[in-house]
TrEMBL record:
Segments of this protein annotated with the region Disordered: 21-56
Basic and acidic residues: bias regions: 39-50
Designated name of the protein: Macro domain-containing protein
Lineage: superkingdom: Eukaryota
Length: 257
């Protein structure tokens, strides 16, 4: 059954008062208080509530703090880079000396703002970490393949995600901002990304923003219009979050019994 949306703009329901409070309460409980980024979050909700088609579409997914943003990563980096409790994440290849390395997609944005990771910034063969100033956001690069022209394997991708989860939690970050990592140009299945990002959120307790906007050509989204890709990503995260919730309830029942 094919997915189709009539409009090129993704229409989502405005956040309810309860959902808005959930975002605010979760941020407060996690200690992720940052005036610059908090004002951006309020602005996102206000823009959506205004009903303007030019506003950023946001979706609060199920009971977890995973939010989709239909916005250019360039704008998001500028809004949130001043918060030390925030970390950005994207995928790169290991051949950082290559001219093609970080030459397409959101990697271009991160290269512009933070540069390529230096050898000393590689924590291991799966993950690099950059920071410009003590009070600013950090940047994670998931090293998912050896060369720019390669495609990552699921095994390598999942290992990079595992290292991200561990280091993110150890550094005390409270908010992750990322693209649908690997899904656009590296053909990582949306289902795999959804599974990993749900696991990440549950294990770290962080608020997660997934940023995507319409790029050309359509082949970047498996032949789907961006609106359909956005919808499918939304759906898959809900599915995997529901599966995790059922697993949690099953484990709790076994403990009680």
């Amino acid at each position: 059954e094919s997915l189709s949306l009539e409009d090129s703009v993704v229409e989502v329901e405005p956040l309810t008062v309860t959902e808005q409070q959930k975002v605010e309460i979760t941020s407060s409980e996690n200690g992720a208080v940052c005036s610059a980024s908090d004002s951006s979050e309020r602005k996102l909700r206000e823009d959506r509530a205004s009903g303007s088609h030019n506003s950023v579409g946001t979706t609060l997914l199920t009971s977890q703090s995973i939010i989709l943003l239909n916005e250019d990563m360039e704008d998001v980096v500028q809004k949130f880079r001043g918060c030390k409790y925030t970390a950005f994440a994207h995928c790169i290849s290991a051949d950082t000396s290559s001219e093609k390395n970080m030459s397409a997609g959101v990697a271009v944005v991160f290269k512009h703002h933070f540069g390529k990771p230096h050898h000393s910034e590689f924590l291991n063969k799966y993950l690099a970490y950059q920071t410009t100033r003590q009070e600013e956001a950090g940047v994670y690069s998931l090293v998912t393949k050896a060369k720019y022209s390669h495609k990552p394997t699921s095994e390598h991708y999942c290992k990079a995600f595992k290292h991200l989860m561990c280091d993110f939690k150890e550094r005390g970050f409270k908010r992750l901002i990322c693209s649908p990592m690997g899904c656009i140009r590296d053909r990582i299945p949306v289902e795999l990304f959804a599974s990993e990002i749900v696991n990440f959120q549950r294990w770290t307790g962080a608020i997660v923003y997934i940023v995507t906007h319409d790029e050309q050509p359509k082949r970047l989204y498996g032949g789907l219009p961006h609106s359909d890709f956005f919808y499918y990503l939304n759906h898959q995260i809900k599915v995997h979050d529901s599966l995790m919730l059922k697993l949690d309830l099953t484990n709790l029942k076994e403990i009680i019994m």
